[in-house]
Amino acid sequence: MSRNNYFEYTAMGREISRKPVDKEADIILALDRMIKIDKINAAKYNTFRWQLAGNPNKETLNGNRYFYRSDLMVQQRSNYYFALKGASNRIESGESGNGENIKGYFQGNGTFYIVKRGNEYEDIFPVWNWRKLPGLLCPQTTETLLLFTWGEGAFGTTSFVDGLSDNQYGCFGYDYNKKGVTAHRSWFMFDNEIVNLVSNASGDSLYQSINQCLLHGIIWQDENNKNKPKQKCVFHDSVGYIINSDEQLEVMQSIDTGSWHSINLAASAEPVTKAVFTIGINLGNASNKSYSYTLLPGISLPHFRDYHLQDHIQILSNSANLQAVYQKDLQQVQAIFYGNDSLQLPFKNCFLKMIKQGLVIIKLKKDKLLVDYSIERVNYHIEIPFSKKLLSKTRTLLLAWCNNTSMDNRPDHKRKQKITFKTTWHSRKIFRLFFSTWLLLKHRVLLFPFIIVLI
Questions:
Q1: Which phi and psi angles does 242 have, rounded to 5°?
Q2: Residues 286 and 371 in one domain
Q3: For residue range 156-192, what is the model confidence (pLDDT) as tens digits?
């Protein structure tokens, strides 16, 4: 994963603590050789080469991908790159070893990077406050950060850390439990907005970092929003920040000094000084606190000042069981279910119910509901006709799954069904609709039910 001369830091491991060399030059050289050797894929190599070189005339990547083996989600648009990393009990967040990466204990635990040019975090690591990594939720203490030598102790502690992508948009849910801090944390990624909802955040001396990057240009704050006193707006370096929280917001610029030796014992102790921008929420001693913030990456200050979040984004739920957001321009709902719950959709008389942990992306496209969802790390896609006749009465969409263990349960194996309806009327004027898809596996017919109940 890369953008211009930026390489995804969460994929580097201990290398993040090494004084950088010209990595892109080495890769460009390798790509030039592959273009000559592998003529069939020469166009793909050439596209990647131009991307690394930062050629402004070449089209950038556009889409969303979830890498389930790494608990990593990446979203790219023409004007920004965003990468989010979690750590489930299946994944190591990173490692230290040989005296390298000795402050990286929290790296990859709900941390992210926002990139436009490619140099937003360039060589910042010696001066970083490693308890305020971008996106990190952790206590602010003075104790020495723990080592996780060769990955020991680097696994997450919870199983529900998962992402869902339809290749263009994505959501990511994180049942977070790290170093005495617990929370439900969810991210919802649209074209222009990335929304982070946090519920049930608990811990001592707690701090929600939003970004910590190199200072570049002015910092603008809106301190006169009398209509929405809880909503605070900040702009820096082509990123707009809208924070909804009662807690103290920290926005600061500083000149910080450190050394590569402070994060890599084999590196130079020569001082390194950088100008740094920091933004975050000071939660203090928190117990079941909820809040949200929205990132608007790749935006100009004039456009950000004219932007009104409520015209585009509606938070449908931010509770212990359910976190959900509606993007009005796209007519798209993204939701994370941490338990059995129901959600009233912003489409007339529609409800969504899930009885297990899972993730959902629902898009209203003309006369169809396009539903992508994931339960037990298996992805499904269904298409539901959505006519005016169907809208005339209240209905509930119940998302179901197959528990047969012999099925291919790879999270990237998306099962697709195009649904058609047959309807019958029952007594007491209750209208119910059932439909099923049969899957053939090893000469067995498995019943895979999806049920829409119309009341």
A1: -120, 115
A2: no
A3: 999 999 999 999 999 999 999 999 999 999 999 999 9
